[in-house]
Specification:
heterodimer, A: mainly alpha, 11 helices, 75% helix, globular, B: Rossmann fold, 2 domains, seven-stranded mixed β-sheet, five-stranded parallel β-sheet, 12 helices, 14 strands, 16% strand
Chain lengths: 288, 435
């Protein structure tokens, strides 16, 4: 097997993995703070993608410029979801929590189909398009953009979580809510911030994805599913773990596609997941 | 505790009684309708109204509604059976009502929806369903319930090879389609002096893709070509990079594809990104014939060919098709009628014809009438159908000659057969840097 083919597969895999990672980080963050799995995470990605598309088609704003706008918009959406839905069911039975976000997911994808029709949308000729050619390796500029933005977003998040007071308060809430409250941390505010950041990250991911992927009401499902696996792989509640999990999945998916066969891509991905979880049940960086 | 349980039990009994009464009432109403002159004949249809191909489902729904409208009302200027009359003449002008269910592209939902349409809506015939996997389970449900199921748009050959007595298919099957594709590829390449030696397949992994890949290999063997790469991929995947890399490495003379719309779009984008343009590409309809495909990546998909049963540009060669295309565009706000939608349209006429000849809504009579169907080409709007006559054993419509379409200038043109062609084929497909 030609080494350039492997290198190509690895690079594209990591690039796609960065998108998975960005989507997964938000999911892990919310779980860490509130012990709630947001089943509408994939659908919120879809909402962000549609937002990006409509900004482009109705206002002529390129995704590159729309990025901060959509990120902020989605962060606000996240806060609204927390206040409107999550807050009401927080503390009630696990079933209620599951159904709340699951119901939100169904509501979002059905509304999208009703409002925007099931037709496929693509953003044509965005500022960032085309591919870079180095020897026999081709990498899409959109993918490089996605990887760079994801890495940047994650670095900022990491710095925020570890080097700012609010960030550390978030981590404290994540570790032990009661102790955090006793220490004077406003957990209500932490939950709001957590959701805002989580969905804001999804917003960033949706913009970089909309740049090159097709958009339709069901697009969230595919990426959402991988996000859950990435979070589980990296360890529920650990943000760094989710990021690494996403990249690993992207790389494994791509490499197994060329090394074994494209049809076994997900077999290998899930096998890796099973092995990791058997050897280390809490995930790569998970806490108990 | 006892009081709660007792009240609960009483409530439950009342609920059951109410449901039974409602059911009886509904049943009586249907009986009444079955007698009088204002009779409505229910025909069931399952289509993918949600999920990745929902747009296709929406078109099929519109086509079914248009067809039932033409059958039920008077359209004097249309040269189709039942257009000039209202309703079915042999049943006293009874109107047909198409009851559509959403199978979501899921075989399990297809089965349960069919069950519901047959047992609760009391449809006398079923039609459907685009996804071969969905048709597979739904036809089995119809068989169990002894209701005819006429397939309007699923092409997997297995569907008519299971010995089912109640399944019929108007639409051609992939055996016919893939053979036609390979024969055309062979002909085109030889005409340009570069006969094909290698072929690569690029098929998704549900029933449709599997059968297509199998047929591709059989036809390649028949023509003496080597299969340079057999790439099977999971439908609705997030990335096709590895798959395209394999195709690029194989660099076959001819690439055969079978997949749904989302993957088709991603495929073209990935081809452009990885700088690979196959010399000849013919897709097995579905994604590669989807109007959305042309809309999303039409410019980049220059030269992509597909087999089809109809095409919007054949309005001149087949006037009734042109008229129906216009009516369809009016109904849907300007959408073109894909051949899948046209297939649903024509199938409803076949069903209406059978019920009319049977002169009753008894499923056995309809089944017998279907077996005796012998409609001329003028009764169906699809140019690739020379009429409708079902093989007595497999119940497959035998009067088929598929079309080959190609994307040129961002739209589908007909390149084969010669008597219906509206443009010359573009071969080979130019490389990305030569466009």
């Amino acid at each position: 097997m030609d080494s350039s083919i492997l290198l190509q597969a690895l690079l594209t895999g990591v690039a796609v993995g960065c998108v998975y990672a960005l989507v997964s980080v938000g999911l892990s963050l919310v779980y860490g703070i509130m012990d709630i799995i947001n089943f509408a995470h994939g659908e919120l990605l879809m909402v962000g993608m549609y937002g990006t598309f409509f900004m482009w088609v109705m206002l002529g704003i390129d995704p590159l410029i729309a990025l901060p706008i959509i990120a902020l918009f989605m962060a606000v959406v996240g806060v609204f979801i927390y206040k409107g839905i999550i807050k009401q069911i927080y503390g009630s039975s696990a079933l209620a929590q599951i159904f709340a976000t699951f119901g939100l997911a169904t509501f979002l994808s059905s509304s999208a189909q009703a409002l925007f029709t099931p037709n496929f949308r693509t953003i044509e000729n965005p500022i960032i398009h085309g591919s870079i050619n180095i020897g026999s390796i081709y990498i899409g500029k959109s993918e490089i953009f996605a990887a760079v933005v994801s890495a940047l977003a994650f670095t900022l998040l990491y710095l925020f979580l570890n080097y700012t007071n609010t960030g550390r308060a978030l981590q404290a809430t994540s570790e032990n809510k009661d102790a955090a409250t006793l220490m004077g941390i406003n957990t209500e505010k932490m939950f709001m911030i957590g959701w805002g950041i989580s969905i804001g990250l999804v917003g960033i991911a949706s913009v970089v994805l909309a740049n090159y992927f097709y958009i339709f009401p069901g697009v969230g499902t595919t990426f959402g599913l991988i996000a859950y696996v990435a979070v589980a792989l990296g360890g529920f509640g650990n943000v760094m773990g989710a990021f690494i999990g996403g990249i690993i999945i992207g790389a494994v998916e791509s490499l197994s596609g060329v090394l074994i066969s494209p049809v076994y891509k997900y077999t290998v991905v899930f096998s890796v997941y099973l092995i990791v979880v058997l050897v280390r049940p809490k995930g790569i960086l998970g806490r108990s | 505790m006892v009081k709660i349980t007792r009240n609960f039990a009483i409530g439950l009994v009342l609920l059951f009684t109410a449901t039974l009464l409602a059911g009886c009432g509904g049943g009586a109403k249907d009986e009444g309708k079955a007698q009088g002159g204002d009779k409505v004949i229910k025909i069931g249809a399952i289509q993918p109204l949600s999920g990745a191909v929902a747009a296709m489902g929406a078109d099929s729904k519109a086509a079914l509604e248009l067809a039932s409208d033409i059958i039920n009302k008077k359209y004097d200027d249309l040269d189709l059976p039942f257009a000039k009359t209202e309703g079915l003449p042999n049943l006293g002008g009874a109107k047909i009502q198409v009851v559509i269910g959403d199978h979501q592209g899921d075989p399990n939902v297809a089965a349960s929806t069919t069950e519901r349409l047959i047992t609760q809506e009391k449809v006398v015939v079923m039609t459907g369903s685009y996804h071969s996997a969905a048709s597979g389970t739904a036809t089995e449900v119809a068989e169990r319930n002894s209701i005819p199921f006429v397939i309007d748009s699923s092409s997997s050959p297995t569907l008519t090879n299971r010995g089912l007595k109640w399944t019929f298919r108007v639409w051609p099957h992939d055996g016919m389609f893939v053979a036609a594709i390979f024969d055309y590829a062979d002909k085109l390449a030889k005409e340009k002096g570069t006969p094909i030696k290698t072929v690569a397949t690029f098929c998704e992994d549900t029933l449709f893709g599997h059968d297509s890949a199998k047929l591709a290999k059989e036809n390649a063997q028949r023509l003496g070509w080597q299969v340079a790469a057999e790439v099977n991929y999971k439908a609705n995947t997030t990335s096709l990079d590895s798959e395209v890399q394999k195709l690029k490495a194989a660099n076959a003379d001819f690439v055969f594809g079978a997949g749904y719309i989302s993957d088709a779009i991603l495929f073209v984008k990935t081809l452009k990104k990885l700088n690979y343009a196959p010399k000849m590409f013919i897709g097995n309809n579905t994604g590669y014939s989807d109007p959305n495909f042309v809309k999303s990546v039409g410019g980049d998909a220059l030269g992509f060919m597909t087999r089809a049963v109809s095409n919007a540009d054949l309005g001149e060669k087949k006037p009734v098709l042109g008229k129906i295309n216009k009516l369809f565009a009016e109904k849907t706000g300007g959408r073109p009628m894909s051949d899948t939608a046209a297939g649903c349209f024509s199938t409803l006429f076949v069903v209406a014809d059978a019920i009319n000849r049977a002169g009753s809504t008894n499923p056995e009579s309809i089944q017998k009438a279907l077996l005796e169907t012998d409609l001329p080409a003028s009764a169906v709007i699809l140019p690739a159908l020379q009429g409708v006559k079902f093989d007595q054993k497999t119940h497959q419509n035998e009067k088929i000659s598929p079309l080959i379409l190609q994307i040129q200038d961002g739209k589908f043109v007909t390149v084969y057969p010669d008597n219906l062609a509206t443009a010359k084929p573009l071969y080979p497909i130019p490389a990305w840097d030569k466009r």
